Amino acid sequence: MLNKVPEVTAIFWAIKILSTTVGETGADYLAVHVGLGAGRTAICMTGLLIAALLLQLRRRAYVPWIYWLTVVLVSIVGTQLTDLLTDKLEISLYVSTAAFAGALAAIFAIWYGVERTLSIHSIVTTRRELFYWTAILFTFALGTAAGDLATEALGLGFQLGVVAFGMLIVAVAAAYAIGGNPVLTFWLAYILTRPLGASLGDLLSQSRDYGGMGLGTVQTSIVFLTVIVGLVAWVTFEGDDARRTDPAQ
């Protein structure tokens, strides 16, 4: 099958950050405002994620709306996974961050040991795609735990969290620009966009009493979802135009 992962472009990173923000605000909205609670939210979203992932795995090529729907659902489930450990099981953010980092490192080690590559440009078999989505889930869980650790446990707050994680991403981009390993820098940036998006989501949605801008989870989620839909529609039509221009595709 063809590569099942989109090209890494500015639009890719924009949708990725937006989807992480929706994961943060969407999970909070369902758990708190709708009243589902963390457990039922996790169960419902996991069911939707499994359905989306099965749809994604059945395709033989990259389909933008299916891929990004899966990413948004992974973002929500990854957020809920960390929240369940922190809020229900009362596991320290230091412990969960270290545990998710170790689990992600193990996934990468097994993936590389089996496939001899971690490149996203060669997701052309079902086995590689399963490794890819497993890694993606744990990047979201790790990013959520690391973001909460920085903004809450370490007291950076939402504004400083956005700045700090933004600067780390700029540093990774600079390392790539001067010849850094493209696979390593990609995955580092992918992990860091999760706490950046989460901090941005909290900054926009949380009340002013907690250091946010008070826009609320509903408004923030709707705005960001609307932008995501617009960008996904853009890349879909752009891909259709490219195929019409070049029949070989």
Automatic annotation (TrEMBL):
InterPro entries: DUF347. The chain crosses the membrane at residues 30-55, 62-81, 93-114, 130-150, 162-192, 213-237. The keyword Flavoprotein does not apply. Keywords: Membrane, Transmembrane, Transmembrane helix. Pfam families: DUF347 (PF03988). It comes from the Bacteria. This is Membrane-anchored protein. It comes from Bradyrhizobium commune.
